[in-house]
Write a structure and sequence with these properties.
By secondary structure, the chain is α/β, with parallel strands linked by helices. It has a single domain, classed as Rossmann fold (3-Layer(aba) Sandwich). Helices cover 27% and strands 30% of the residues. The chain has three helices and ten strands, in the order βαβββββαββββα. Strands 1, 2, 3, 4, 5, 6, 7, 8, 9 and 10 form a ten-stranded mixed sheet that branches. Strand 5 and strand 6 form a beta hairpin. Helix 2 packs across helix 3. The radius of gyration is 22 Å and the shape is elongated.
Length: 230
C-alpha cells in the first residue's frame, strides 16, 4: 500500500501552504539529498455529446481561480475530514488550474461545436467569457478503503460585451481509485477531469446558446400577401 507523507493536521491555511512550498523545494533546504519524484500528467479525453448545440459565437476561457493550497503541484490527499496531506515522491506535471483550463479548451476545440475558443488574453474577440473557481482537487478517502479523485468547480459565464453574468453553476466529480497506489489515484483524476470538463463544456454551449436566442431572437417569417391574382 502506498503511504502518504504526513504534515501536521489542522495547520492554518497560510502555514500549510508555506509547508507545501518547502517540501516541493526538496531536502536541499535541510542539507540532505533530493528525493526523486514521479511526475503525473493526466491526459483526459472528452466524448462529444451529439445533443450539444453548434453555436456561432466565440468564447474566451479565463485562467481558473484557486486557493494556493488547492493549486499546488503536490498531489493532495484527505485521509480524514479536516486533515490534508500530500503523496510522498509524487507531483503533478502542471498545476490543477492549468489542467482544468486545458481540458475544457481542448474539449471545445475538438468538439467543432463552437465558432472559436481560446485562452483569455490571446486577442480573441470573444462574445462570452468562461470563469471558473477551482474549489477542490484532492484524493479524498471519505471513510472508504481507497480514495476518490474529487474535483469541485464553480463556473460562471459572462457576456463579454457588458460583463453581465449570464449563468453560474457548480460542478463536482468524485471517481474512486482502483487501489491506494499513487498511479491509480492519478488515473482516477484523469477520469474525473474528463467527466467534469464534459459537463462544463455542455453547460457552456447550452447556456450561451439559450442566452443568444433570448437577446437576439430569430426574425419572424414574412406574412404572405392575401391578395388574389387577376
Amino acid at each position: 500500500m502506498t503511504t502518504v507523507t504526513s504534515m501536521q493536521s489542522m495547520f492554518p491555511t497560510r502555514l500549510l501552504a508555506m509547508s507545501l512550498v518547502i517540501l516541493a523545494g526538496g531536502c536541499s533546504v535541510l542539507g540532505g539529498n533530493k528525493t526523486p519524484a514521479t511526475i503525473y500528467a493526466p491526459a483526459p479525453s472528452v466524448t462529444v455529446d451529439p445533443a450539444w448545440p453548434t453555436v456561432d459565437w466565440q468564447l474566451a476561457i479565463a485562467r481558473p481561480e484557486a486557493e494556493r493550497i488547492v493549486d499546488s503541484l503536490r498531489i493532495s490527499v484527505r485521509p480524514t475530514p479536516g486533515e490534508l496531506e500530500v503523496y510522498k515522491g509524487a507531483s503533478w506535471g502542471s498545476p490543477p488550474s492549468e489542467q482544468l483550463q486545458s481540458a475544457v479548451l481542448h474539449a471545445l476545440e475538438d468538439s467543432h461545436k463552437i465558432k472559436a475558443v481560446a485562452r483569455q488574453g490571446t486577442g480573441l474577440s470573444a462574445d462570452y467569457t468562461l470563469l471558473t473557481d477551482l474549489r477542490r482537487f484532492e484524493a479524498d478517502y471519505a471513510g472508504a478503503a481507497v480514495p476518490s479523485a474529487t474535483i469541485e468547480i464553480n463556473a460562471k459565464l459572462l457576456d463579454a460585451v457588458d460583463q453581465d453574468l449570464v449563468a453560474s453553476q457548480t460542478f463536482r466529480q468524485s471517481v474512486p481509485a482502483g487501489t491506494t497506489d499513487t498511479a491509480a489515484v492519478s488515473q482516477a483524476f484523469e477520469t474525473a477531469l474528463g467527466s467534469i470538463a464534459h459537463d462544463i463544456v455542455g453547460w457552456t454551449l447550452v447556456t450561451g446558446n439559450q442566452h443568444v436566442h433570448r437577446v437576439m431572437p430569430p426574425p419572424r417569417p414574412r406574412a404572405r400577401s392575401g391578395g388574389k391574382s387577376g
